[in-house]
Write a structure and sequence with these properties.
seven-stranded mixed sheet, 13 helices, Aspartate Aminotransferase, domain 2, Aspartate Aminotransferase, domain 1, 12 strands, 390 residues, binds pyridoxal-5'-phosphate, alpha/beta, 2 domains, 41% helix, Aminotrans_V_PyrdxlP_BS
Length: 390
């Protein structure tokens, strides 16, 4: 049976050359970068070069790149680090209803600790309401955190517009962007966009899991979450994961080199997929109809009346791997927080399916997927039990 992996927004297979490089580093350069002898110096040089490679890709200074254990830690560090560091200046923080859990839950925790947190609403296409942002911005707002590309729907947020608004209405507020789903997919540089803090995770761009970085603009200070040996300029103590750092740098470089090709090919796949889905009366596309505002590598749709888990497993039996965000615990269907924020009905919010693909898939794969999707939907329809119970 043909296997088709359409869950690249969850994680990606690693580049072969990244695996090879990491194996070599693990085998040969096992020194601790803090050690004073030759093995330490070699490891320290590898970390330094990795930092320079990533900085060159992002057109920033090497010391603006701080290594962490991934997207979740970078988001926690940026948000808690800025909220605590600048709490003397103000207690107001702003984010949105559609952020990744590692942002959303961090702000919910800060709200419990006494910070005043505004969760901005989104419109029906999944874009953060800019009027609501303008209303929420105050002189004592210290941090605004808005993601670049939503990991569920693929909706692109107007990052440059938000940065401009911040400068005009709340010049002291820092701007954090979770760019995990945008780096290597969209052409942008944090310095050009007016971003102060930016999160990246390596495993979403064909690097290793458990490693990421936080872009931290020169001049921005954060309270560290981890104390100890003072690595990463005191921001993140703990012996550096040298092989993962080297592997991530290589993956970032390759992904940035491929970005234009990635965008072109996945855009063609996206338009084929949206056309095929819009021709099926049972299905409804989520997000914006304007393709300029949607990331090319993600398509999201609902099958109202059909729980997402049923379709995920039916497709899995055909060797096709897709995703649902509406996690199902002990049979109780939980509607997607993102789709609910977009004003979708419960029925639509429990039946979301995410397709995400990369340069490893082809237009031919998309044709095959569309065929299998039609077949599966037709086969499932008669027993659409949820619909029957309405
Ligand atoms: C995957 C993801 C994260 C979390 O990254 P991890 O490295 O898995 O912790 C954060 N934000 C977004 C948008 C993501 O897609």
């Amino acid at each position: 049976m043909r296997a088709l992996y359409l869950d690249n927004a969850a994680t990606t297979p690693m580049y072969e050359e990244v695996i090879d490089t990491m194996a070599e580093v693990m085998r040969t350069y096992f020194g601790n970068p803090s050690s004073l002898h030759k093995l330490g110096v070699q490891a320290e040089q590898l970390v330094r070069r990795a930092r320079e490679t990533i900085a060159a890709g992002l057109r920033c200074a090497p010391e603006e790149i701080r290594f962490t254990s991934g997207g979740t830690e970078s988001n926690n560090l940026a948000i808690r680090g800025a909220a605590y560091r600048y709490r003397g200046r103000g207690m107001r923080l702003i984010t949105s209803e559609i952020e990744h859990a590692s942002v959303y839950e961090t702000f919910r925790q800060l709200a419990k600790e006494g910070f005043h947190v505004t969760f901005l609403p989104v419109d029906s296409t999944g874009q953060v309401e800019l009027d609501a942002l303008k209303d929420a911005l105050t002189a004592d707002t210290t941090l605004v955190s808005i993601m670049h590309v939503n990991n569920e729907t693929g909706r692109i947020q107007p990052i440059a517009d938000i940065a401009r608004m911040l400068r005009e209405h709340s010049p002291a507020a820092l701007f954090h962007v979770d760019a995990v789903q945008a780096i290597g997919k969209l052409p942008f540089f944090p310095g050009d966009l007016g971003i102060d803090l930016m999160t990246c995770a390596a495993h979403k761009l064909r690097g290793p899991k458990g490693i990421g970085f936080l872009y931290c603009r020169n001049g921005v200070e954060l309270s560290p979450l981890l104390l100890g040996g003072g690595q990463e300029n005191g921001l993140r103590s703990g012996t550096e994961n040298v092989p993962a750092i080297v592997g991530m740098a290589k993956a970032v470089r390759l992904a940035m080199e491929e970005q234009a090709a990635f965008a072109e090919q996945t855009a063609a796949m996206r338009s084929k997929l949206t056309e095929c889905i819009s021709q099926m009366p049972e299905l409804v596309l989520n997000g914006s109809p304007d393709k300029e505002t949607m990331a090319p590598h993600i398509v999201h749709f609902s099958y109202p009346g059909m729980k997402s888990e049923v379709l995920v497993h039916a497709l899995e039996q055909q060797g096709i791997y897709v995703s649902t965000r509406s996690a199902c615990s002990s049979g109780a269907e939980k509607p997607s927080r993102v789709l609910t924020a977009m004003g979708c009905s419960r029925e639509r919010a429990v039946s979301g399916i995410r397709l995400s693909y990369s340069l490893m898939q082809t237009l031919d794969d998309v044709d095959y997927f569309c065929l299998m999707l039609k077949e599966t939907v037709t086969r499932l329809k008669p027993s659409a039990s949820v619909r029957g119970r309405r």
